[in-house]
Write a structure and sequence with these properties.
By secondary structure, this protein is mainly α. The protein has a single domain, classed as Orthogonal Bundle (Arc Repressor Mutant, subunit A), CATH 1.10.10.10. The protein contains four helices and two strands. Strands 1-2 form a two-stranded antiparallel ribbon.
Length: 91
């Protein structure tokens, strides 16, 4: 799991505020919430409980995140989100 050394920089919406030049799709507000859980090192079960959704729904959001970010793992998702400015590395 990714250690909790990252924090979400901004709350963004589907309006395109988190879209970088050249990116085709933006992350939804719920996908950003799931990404925050990933950044904090939470398991799908814990993210589901925190967001009051099913684990299946969390997994669907994770798959969507992977597709939109062009990655295949949680650590790659965090690294890509940092590079894209979606989240900021910090202590």
């Amino acid at each position: 799991m990714v250690p909790a050394v990252f924090r979400i920089l901004k709350q963004r919406t589907d309006t395109g505020a988190n879209q970088k030049p050249g990116e085709k799709e933006t992350l939804s507000e719920r996908e950003l919430e799931v990404l925050k859980g990933i950044v904090e090192g939470l398991k799908d079960r814990d993210i589901a409980q925190a967001l009051h959704i099913s684990e299946h729904t969390v997994r669907s959001h994770v798959k969507s995140l992977y597709r939109k970010l062009g990655v295949s793992s949680r650590s790659q998702a965090v690294a890509r989100a940092v590079r894209a400015g979606i989240i900021e590395s910090g202590s």
